[in-house]
Each structure stands twice: as C-alpha cells, then as structure tokens.
Design brief:
The complex is a heterodimer.
Chain A: H1 2-20, H2 23-60, H3 63-70, H4 72-78, H5 87-100, H6 104-120, H7 130-141, H8 148-156, H9 166-190
Chain B: H1 2-23, H2 28-62, H3 65-79, H4 87-92, H5 97-111, H6 116-127, H7 131-140, H8 150-171
Helix pairs in contact in B: 2-5, 5-6, 6-8
The chains are: A mainly alpha, B mainly alpha.
C-alpha cells in the first residue's frame, strides 16, 4: 500500500511546489526531515526501551493468566461457539489481556496461535468462522488500558502530561469495540 | 481528578508490576534488561519508516499542497467539527502503523503535543489499530481467503473510534 502512497506523495508535492513557487521551501525541508527523524529516534530509545523492560517483567509473572480468568464471562458472551476450558478459549483470553495491557508484541503471537487452534474445528478451511471473525474484529479495535507507545512518544516530545490522554483513549477504544462487536454480531447472521 | 488519575496510572502500574515480580521471586532487574534490549530493535526498525514518512510528509507540507487540500475539504470538516489537520492521520491509520505514527508525531510537533489537535492525534493512535495489517496476518497464518464482513466491521469500529477521539478530546479539554 505504501509503495503506492509514498511515491504519489513525493511526486505531487514536488510538482505542486514548482507550480506554486515553493521549491526553495521544499529543498530546505528535505534535510530537516532527515534530521528530525534522527533526533526523535534517539529520544525514543529511552522511553520505548523503558516500557519494554517494565512490560517484560509483567510477561514473566502470572499476572496475565490471573487477569485472563476474570474475562471468562465476557469471552463466553463474545464467542458462544467456543467451549469453556478449551484451548481456544484460553488463547483468546490471553490475547485479549495482552492487548488490554498494551503488550502488542505479546498479543500478536498469542492471537495467531488462537487462530490456528480455531482453524482445527473450522468446517470450511478457506472461510472465517463466526468466532474467528469476532476475534479479528476485536483485535483490530485495539482495546487498551495502557497505550504504552503513545505515552512513550508523548513524553519524548516533552508533554507536560504524557499520560493525560489515557481517559480519552479508554472512551474511544470502548466505543470502537462496541461498534465493532455489534456490527459483527449483526453481520454474522446475514453474510 | 482526571489529571490526578492520569498522572498516577503509570507510576502505579510500574509499582504493581515490580512488586508482583518480586512476589513471584523473579529476577526483576535481569528481566527488565532483556525487555529493554528488545526495545532497541523496535526503535531501530522504526527509524527507516520514520525517515521515509517524514520526508514525504515534509514535502507535502512545505510544497503547500496540504494547506490547499485542507482548504478544499474544510467546509465539510467544519460542519462535523473535525480539525482538518488530523484528516491525513485518520486516512493513514488503518493502512500502516509506523507511517501513521510518523504522521501523528509530525502533528504533535507542529501543533504542540498538549494542544487539542496533539491530544486528538494521540487518542487516535492509542485507540485504533492498523486494521489492514491485523486482518492480513491473522487470516494469512491459517491460509483463509474468504474474510466475509470482517473488513467492513473493523473499519466501522475504526471510524467510530476516530470520531469518538475527536469528540471526547473536545469535551475533556
């Protein structure tokens, strides 16, 4: 996708700059962009590595398994076709917990494992089941309690309150999840 | 109250995780170092994308074409009360994670990280996912081609998340 968008952006900008007489501006800006990419990357080293370290501790403890148990009623509601105590049930809960904690790196491998487990019971191997569809939509809605990356970036940019957007993220992510789940429940009966 | 809750969230999480690690007798510092090492790779992988996106976005902005496009669509966005500066972000968000992160950072630098637009950009980044990528890897790993309604449902959720981000940031500011 970006293989199309990126060159289009560059081509139209440079042509437009020639037409509108902004070509000097553009020329100065090119190396400024490179410089700011470098300086930002350096500040990211601190914040992103810090979070990754803290999160690694959480991953190595039993916090995630314990939290996953709290989710059982929710999972039964979202995935009525998945049996309780099954392997898929367990993997789905772990994936959702990892998402909730902002552990994107841990959530994806767990999610892929859950997909493979659900595929075993799939009668039509080339088509998503209802549970798989619901699972993917929930993963794209990104339900997060701690938006770790955004907070890390905000503090790199000298925000006075890097975590000041947590409440807003909660509200937006919950609305997105409700819309996604409702749409999925409606669509799965018709398509 | 909102500020206090937001400010205490991070220290409390760190405290909780460290104490929990100690309770389970883990070597917390060694584990922390392992995690931090992984972070280096994430940042190094992010750099080339950031460079490429900053170049493209810098060109778009310095050429004046972004202002030109924003002027054209602003009557529509004004009615919906969407700050037009976040539109490029909203359009890129479902397509590429690192590219949209680059655009969000650009917005935060230009308008201020604590400005309304900076907060909206942060909230959009925190509350939505790279939908196309997620669907692609989750279906590819089990070789599924027929994805039924999933893209539509996921994009609906994204749209709802973005609109809510805009509204909630305006309410809470």
């Amino acid at each position: 996708m970006l293989n199309i968008i990126w060159p289009v952006f560059i081509i139209i900008s440079i042509i437009y700059a020639f037409i509108s007489g902004n070509i000097e501006n553009i020329s100065n800006g090119i190396f400024d962009s490179a410089e700011s990419a470098v300086s930002l990357t350096i500040t990211f080293f601190g914040t992103i590595c810090l979070w990754n370290g803290i999160i690694e501790i959480a991953k190595k403890t039993s916090i995630m398994q314990k939290l996953a148990k709290l989710l059982h009623p929710l999972i039964c509601f979202l995935f009525p076709e998945i049996k309780k105590e099954s392997e898929a049930h367990e993997e789905i809960s772990m994936n959702i917990i990892a998402n909730l904690l902002g552990l994107g790196n841990a959530a994806t491998p767990l999610g892929l494992k859950a997909m493979k487990t659900m595929q075993k019971d799939n009668p039509k191997k080339d088509t998503l089941t209802n549970s798989m569809a619901m699972f993917i939509v929930i993963n794209t809605a990104s339900i997060q309690l701690i938006p770790t990356n955004v907070i890390a970036i905000r503090s790199s940019l000298n925000s006075t309150s890097p975590s000041g957007i947590i409440l807003q993220v909660w509200v937006a992510t919950i609305v997105a999840a409700i819309v996604g789940v409702t749409a999925t429940k409606i669509f799965m009966k018709r398509f | 109250m909102v500020n206090f809750l937001s400010a205490s969230a991070i220290p409390l999480i760190i405290l909780f995780i460290v104490i929990y690690g100690l309770k389970e007798k883990k070597k917390v510092f060694d584990i922390f170092l392992d995690g931090a090492k992984e972070g280096i790779e994430i940042v190094i992988q992010l750099f080339p994308t950031l460079l490429g996106i900053f170049l493209a976005i810098g060109l778009l902005r310095n050429s004046g074409i972004i202002d030109f496009i924003i002027n054209i669509i602003s009557p529509v966005t004004n009615i919906l009360k969407i700050p037009s500066a976040v539109l490029p972000l909203a359009m890129l968000r479902p397509i590429s994670g690192s590219a949209s992160m680059g655009v969000a950072i650009d917005i935060m630098q230009k308008y201020g990280v604590d400005s309304m637009i900076g907060k909206i950009a942060s909230t959009i980044m925190g509350s939505t996912e790279t939908t196309f990528y997620t669907i692609a890897i989750y279906t590819a790993c089990v070789k599924i081609k027929k994805i039924r309604f999933v893209l539509v449902a996921a994009l609906l959720a994204d749209l709802a998340g973005m609109i809510t981000s805009v509204i909630i940031c305006q309410i809470l500011s």
